[in-house]
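User: Please predict structures.

Assistant: First:
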Amino acid sequence: MNGCVHHFLENSASLRPDKVALVHDGERVTYRRLDRAASRLAAFLVERGVLPGDRIVLLLGNGVQYVASYYGILKAGAVAVPLNLQTGPEALARLCEELQPAGIIMEREGTLLRTPPQFLPSVRFVLFADAAAPAGEGGAWGWDQALKGEGLPPEGRQVADTSLASIIYTSGSTGAPKGVMLSHANIVSNTRSIVEYLHLTEDDVQMVVLPFFYVMGKSLLNTHVAVGGTVVINNNFAYSASVLRQMAEEGVTGFSGVPSTYAYLLHRSPLASFRERLPALRYCTQAGGHMAREIKERLMQVLPAHTKLFVMYGATEAAARLTYVEPERLAEKIGSIGKAIPGVTVRVLGPSGEELPEGESGELVASGPNIMLGYWGDVEGTARVLDRNGYHTGDMGYRDGDGYLYVTGRKDHLLKVGGHRVDPQEIEEVLMSSGLLLETAVLGVDDALLGTRLVALAAPLEGAADHLALLAHCRAKLPRHKIPAEIRLVSLLPKHPSGKVDRASCLVICGAAPSTTS
């Protein structure tokens, strides 16, 4: 038995009970206190009749209550289902109809639900994490009332590592959000692999600005709790100077982000002037989509000289991580997503499932103990991506002579323009190479003549670009059929809460619906 996710917290609380596990808004929480809160939350769930395998929805922002709830749900043998805080009432109703949760843990202020709604007959309680509510009134509980009892004893619930631990919904950047089912074994194996290649120890202090409901944010939590490190939660990334100040004050050793996180740090924060104030910053990691070469090169120049930059690749379906580029080879392999992490295999396969030789493009297919059980309530969707070869990522790419993998685009993002197959990522990379932009997204818009025409949304650096300069740059670098028909300048691209670009909202800005890829 490989152990369960909540054992990370229990082990660290046993080994270093007085070590600070979480720092948030001036509050410093030890492992002993965090584990006690999680155990009490688990006991509360059991008292409410929650059974192993029952789903518990989490609608919480990053904070102590979120972490205690997450591990408490797992201790009770239930399934943690973190949802985006921005989920609207109609979408929430659809998801809860799909999930049939036994309970909801949420914030009271600014939330959509005050008491258990009538359309959720499965919900037996709502626990408000930031307010006191009359105990048991209308099925609503306050955090203090729920956690006033004794904790669940260690032998209270035996959980198999093959059990479902969490359902994490994808951002929907490549279609409708899907509920990814991850077992304890999936998460534990990936956590241990990440700990291994990042060389994490109890001395590491991780700054978290990504939401915990996002799989990368959850991975940051699990890896550092696993080694007994410290997680610093900062929910104010828009005020980047204060984030950097806290990194300096707390001796942060690790920072993680998606491409937009680093674009913002480079161009709209005082990162360069903080270089000498971050002597403890051992490494930075990036995942969450393709990051332009220009941003990677600039980061290597601006980050402290001793700070290692890990470029990584993964998927929610892989419990977070699949590959990484060793920092010492990043300059040499700047366009690569690296090699598979320990315990994982990533192959380039042809349409018939045959493994392709180096340099030949095919689909990246991954296998390993971290690969999901499937999509919740979607047998057909699961069968489309999981087969005897492993998890089909939907990303096209190739392997070079040194065994390093490269992503050339997505099967479902390819656009057909005037009879040509066009990969938007290639054009985005060229636009970013101008050095004039903070970020960009290239989209396909329906066109009566061409079928699809290319429109680029571009957020320029302050006073740095106009659409004519960008078009001239494209003409110098791209064949005619890949030059955007239009470049629209915007202040920022719309994002999912994870920081990933929301391509559906980008299309709305263009006044268009998604074009087909056939």
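Second:
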Amino acid sequence: MNRVPCMRAAVEVIASEGVDTVFGIPGAAILPFYAALLDSPIRHITVRHEEGGTHAADGWARATGNVGICVGTSGPAGTNMITGLYTALADSIPIICVTGQAERAKLHQEAFQAVDIVEIAKPVTKWAVQVKESAQVPWVFREAFRVARSGRPGPVLIDLPIDVQRGTCLYDPALDGPLPVEVPQPRQQAVQAAIEMLLAAERPLILAGGGVIIAEAADELRALAAHLQVPVQVTLMGKGAFPEDDPLFAGMAGLQTQTRWGNAAFLESDLVLAVGARFGDRHTGDLETYRRGRRFIHVDIEPTQIGKVFEPDLGVVGHARPVLAAMAAEAQVRTRRRKPGKWVKRVGELRRSLPRRDDFEEVPIKPPRVYRELNEFYGPETTFVTAIGLYQIWSGQFQRTYLPRHYLVCGQAGPLGWEVPAAIGVKTAHPDRQVVVVAGDYSFQFLMEEIAVAAQYNIPFVIVMVNNEYLGLIRQAEIPYDMNYAVDLHYGEGGIDHVKLMDAFGCPARRVEAPGDIRDALAWATAESERQRLPVLVEVMVEREANAAMGPSLDAIKEFEPLPELVSAIDWSD
């Protein structure tokens, strides 16, 4: 066994786990780690803000299914990472954040940039640990990958005091390798019970959550649905788990991101098989309405998720892929492959009779028209990245998806600014993919400095900014309060010109103000992005007062109503 610098061992572990790119910012307290990176095959991309680094690692992880890595120094570097850790925890994304730290002997003396980042990070990680001895380094890193991947995936933070980083350890990479990750198998009795319930139901639905994508279980999902002819809905995190052009696709139910016909189909269902879904409040709305008239089977890899929001009629613990495979096998034993019945035809009727308009010709541009153009211009292989706000809600309502890991969205935490650094991670992971960011004007400004990263490293993608010059979602929520307060972002004289801003980064940009010009702008941006190997912006100026159709009709409310009560119910009729 050879004695080597312990940071070299750490980097050997990272490389052996299949990570080829890390995102970070060097600093004095993490330089031994960077010295080890220098001679490794791992590519380092220097971000402009540690939060941006975590989101880039997050995007890389979502696109690859592997563990993303972000690195920073001590003190504020770690605290800047907290939002990214929370985002990854909320959406079950495996990332590892590595932070530098002051010497162990100085930690109690309020040393420069010394903060107890482990205690700060514990609520937003699966595991936060400070390495106390150099000999622990390779084994802590190895365990970090196992924890990040295991069960419900999520983030880990490793804090490295500078004196620990300078140490050595006994390590031979030829004798080491990734730790096994358990893939929990379902109990056959539970699988049989689930199939019996599906066969007994008259109007069953399968609800595919983000867990189906994480588990790489899309094929198993399609096999089960096709054999039993059960329509499939998706959650926002599950978009891409089932192709939206499949006859069995049943839309999306929800309070915000939803389809009218998806809500209607859900209300008519009598049984829901939910796989890898959390029953988040933006999906369920009022639980009494959501649950009334139907039974639920809840499949999840994390046992404590079952019954957390409401008690299902049947809980099945297991990894989504073997669970769905076992259900498909059991279904094949129980019955021949079914033909489309009355229920499938009814869902098709709802789809045809309850569409939303997206063919508006008006100026200012109505937001649905933007998503119509995106759907028609870009093919199914395009990866879309979007964050939080009205533009995300419109995206969830109107954008069509066909493939897993091709529609990436920060679902539960919803940090503004996520989309640009996440797109950097996605494009770094898959250089040959067409990557399109759908952003709002305000969200773009949160981490717009990361455009410099994409420009520096020639990471090309297209940014489609839906600009309503408002904090649109907050303005819409303020309506029942009869106010329009602190949400105006009008960029008149002295405001931000996003086209000029992109020019300052050395990147092309174009502003669009008429619906007929959107298609040409997308074609121009796509070509320029690849030709110049740069991010390119298409800023689409949309109607300022446009609202998203969600929950109760907010426009119709004239009297004050407390916001928690306002958002507690779904307007199923849309």
